[in-house]
Amino acid sequence: MAELYKKKGLDPLKIVGVTTLDIVRANKFVAEITGKSPKDIEVPVIGGHAGVTIMPVFSQDPISATISADKIPALDKRTQDGGTEVVEAKAGKGSATLSMAYSGARFGNKVLAGLAGTPTDECAYVASSVTELPYFSSKVTFGKTGVEKIHDIGTLNSYEQGRLKEAMDQLKTEIDKGLDYAKSNC
Fold first, then answer.
1. What InterPro entries does this protein map onto (predicted)?
2. What angle do CA 133, 134, 137 make, to 5 degrees?
3. Can you tell me the distance from the alpha carbon of 42 to that of 24, in angstroms, rounded to the nearest whole number?
4. Which residues pair with 150 in a beta bridge?
5. How far apart are CA 91 and CA 113, in angstroms?
6. CB-based contact 38:49 (threshold 8 Å)
7. Given 49, 78, 110, 139, the catalytic residue
8. What pTM did the predictor assign?
9. Is 151 a catalytic residue?
């Protein structure tokens, strides 16, 4: 969609992919392990919003950074598969509608706070130059004009560096499909 906006001379940063659901899940799972409140946890989730492209950066949150390194791969996978976990828990009779609603409200509140003059940060999937990919989810600052700043991904530990490569390889494939679609449908 951002490519179509560009072709029409519109600002591609007005198109924002919502990845807050992955953040909410990562925060909840960290809270379960640590016994802390999810309100005190803020795990950035970078990359994308499907499978291995969902990359929680546990090392960047003070509470999740206390979790033993040997537990991180399973926690990472659980964050990626959170939606499937809910569907299975409901025996196929529903999906994560409540967590999606909460995440949408949280994201909307951050965007609206920014537009009202209170800059707020949240991870979002946007046209970006933080990696060599043209689109990537990382922390952004919402302000009076929408996305006002796209933050770097920050320091990653060795596990996260490996996961970044895995996420980016998959994202490249997905982005290339989107770019091909935009080229042939404008």
1. Lactate/malate_DH_C, Lactate_DH/Glyco_Ohase_4_C, Malate_DH_AS
2. 80
3. 8
4. 140
5. 38
6. no
7. 49
8. 0.91
9. no
